[in-house]
Amino acid sequence: MAVVEPAAVREVPYEQRPLTPVTAVARPLSPQQVVSALSGPQAVTAVSVAQHHGPVVVLHDGVTVLGVVEVAAVARALQARRP
To answer: How far, CA to CA in Å, does 23 sit from each of 4, 5, 8, 28, 68?
Structure first.
């Protein structure tokens, strides 16, 4: 699994985009960055592990990508919930 890097896409001339393979503008993800839909402490642990491998976590149900979440956004949400 990989995520497209917007900065890499911007560097490809517009007229070349239809000919440019996705792999040229994507960054592969480590297996630790791809997690199933979790909640509670399991979700926090998965994001904690993923942060050592990159800035995003991909939520995947085994067939479909459910979403992409920035690790920093998860950290901000957790900080906001602290009393």
So the answer is: 8, 10, 11, 9, 18
Q: Is the dihedral of CA 68, 71, 77, 83 positive or negative?
A: positive
Rounded CA-CA distance 54/26 in Å is 13
End-to-end CA distance of the chain: 37
Question: Domains of the chain: which residue ranges?
Answer: 2-81
pLDDT single digits (tens) 7-43: 999 999 999 999 999 999 999 999 999 998 788 888 8
Give the residue from 70, 77, 63 showing the smallest Cα distance to 3: 70
How many helices, marked H, and strands, marked E, lie in the chain? 3, 5
